[in-house]
């Protein structure tokens, strides 16, 4: 039932990654929406290093997912334990449109 679905949405893999993180990294907005309806948190952090779904989406250049995550309350500038932000991941992977969006978002916040 609903409780089992919510538990599945909140479950983590051996690294502490949630299904929402995997869906975000894969660019699957509809799956992200479903997981959120089931109780997944857009602000959940990976146990290993503190990454969020935003980090996963940024690393893979998933601009649409990043926009959706921010609309759901995800911190676009959340640092991992070592200080790495979604912008760092986007820059590293060469996702220029996403980099521009993250920089513009940061400018609006300041």
From TrEMBL:
Each ANK repeat, start to end: 15-47, 49-81, 82-110
A Pfam family annotated for this UniProt entry: Ank_2
InterPro entries: Ankyrin_rpt, Ankyrin_rpt-contain_sf
Domain of life per record: Eukaryota
Gene3D superfamilies given in the database record: Ankyrin repeat-containing domain
Keywords: ANK repeat, Repeat
The keyword Repeat appears for this protein: yes
SMART domains found in the cross-reference section: ANK (SM00248)
Repeat recorded as keyword: yes
Name the record gives this protein: Uncharacterized protein
């Amino acid at each position: 039932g609903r409780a089992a679905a919510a538990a599945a949405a909140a479950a983590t893999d051996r690294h502490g990654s949630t299904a929402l993180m995997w869906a975000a990294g894969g660019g699957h907005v509809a799956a992200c929406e479903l997981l959120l309806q089931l109780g997944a948190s857009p602000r959940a952090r990976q146990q290993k290093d503190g990454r969020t779904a935003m980090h996963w989406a940024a690393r893979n250049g998933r601009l649409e997912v990043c926009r959706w995550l921010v609309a759901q309350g995800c911190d676009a500038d959340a640092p991992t334990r070592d200080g790495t932000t979604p912008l760092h991941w986007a820059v590293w992977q060469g996702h220029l449109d996403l980099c521009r969006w993250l920089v513009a978002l940061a400018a609006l916040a300041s």
